[in-house]
Amino acid sequence: xxxxxxxxxxxxxxxxxxxxxxxxxxxxxxxxxxxxxxxxxxxxxxxxxxxxxxxxxxxxxxxxxxxxxxxxxxxxxxxxxxxxxxxxxxxxxxxxxxxxxxxxxxxxxxxxxxxxxxxxxxxxxxxxxxxxxxxxxxxxxxxxxxxxxxxxxxxxxxxxxxxxxxxxxxxxxxxxxxxxxxxxxxxxxxxxxxxxxxxxxxxxxxxxxxxxxxxxxxxxxxxxxxxxxxxxxxxxxxxxxxxxxxxxxxxxxxxxxxxxxxxxxxxxxxxxxxxxxxxxxxxxxxxxxxxxxxxxxxxxxxxxxxxxxxxxxxxxxxxxxxxxxxxxxxxxxxxxxxxxxxxxxxxxxxxxxxxxxx
Length: 358
Ligand code: 1CP
Prior knowledge:
This protein has one domain (11-353): TIM Barrel. It contains 15 helices and eleven strands. The protein has helices at 11-16, 37-46, 49-53, 56-69, 83-90, 109-113, 124-137, 150-159, 167-175, 177-201, 220-235, 258-262, 277-284, 303-315, 340-353, and strands at 75-76, 92-94, 100-102, 143-148, 205-210, 239-240, 243-244, 247-251, 268-270, 289-294, 326-330. The strands form three sheets. A seven-stranded parallel β-sheet has the order 1-4-5-8-9-10-11.
């Protein structure tokens, strides 16, 4: 017996498992966030992004905001990938106008070797947000849980924040591969435990965001990023309440490694906008579903262009009824300054093209 209301719209879960669907499901990476005025208002009231993310009731409200505006086929947990290093004691903070930062980054061998797995009790706010969001959805659409990939987390942990070139973390990889493997193994076990707890709390699919996998050299990617995502996937609980939990890997800039990613044990690959979809399908065969991959910059164009570009993405996949395994998405997150009306136009275009009511 499941604790939750029955799912009324299973398009996403079916497409991720390459089962036939009546229409291509659509959701958008970063669908909750700064481009929505109601998000900015709630963040203002909460005081900060972290205050929002650490309050399960508010995180639930934010996760549902895009669904109140648009007929999306999935909700995604409102949280961040950096919750894990925060709980490992690196102390995440944000300064106005800048990205995330850590007060205690991993600056040398000593700090890397002292790193211990996070205490799950410190991440309870995330699991509570998962359960509360799932309850609030009432079965309308499935809820996606997520985590950063072990490598992408390591990037922020070693740099102490974002970076334009990630030279510190890459230097560590080349100088001290032993230390990097130690860090990645620690992250992989933390990510697996964390995602299993999200699944236990009610996440119906999970996604690994490997935002910085694409900065690695060929060979290094397989060894230092994909290898640890494979380890995570191997430890995941793939069924909950009788339903299979699909796993999606999104490596930004990973287009040249699709065959390797397809062999990782993931059910689906998230593609960025540089990838040719028909070629991607040809390369991975029937092994995995594909999610993507409209260039987010299209959201800054006129409605006619948005509609035409959306149709191009859909056309390159063929018939959803045949179980082609396509989930429509952007090739990366919605930029913070996109007009919300552009997102309406996009979602309507995808639905219209599928013969759904807009
Ligand atoms: O309000 C604010 O100013 C904070 C902006 C913000 C938001 C809305 C951050 C800080 N994180 C989030 C939420 C978030 N982050 C979600 C849930 C929202 C949704 O999708 O509906 C998700 C899935 C993430 C994942 C995330 N965080 C990634 C992977 C996806 C990607 O975009 O590549 C990454 C790299 C982060 C780190 C991070 N957190 C926040 C920012 C601005 C960043 C990026 C920093 C950088 O550019 O390096």
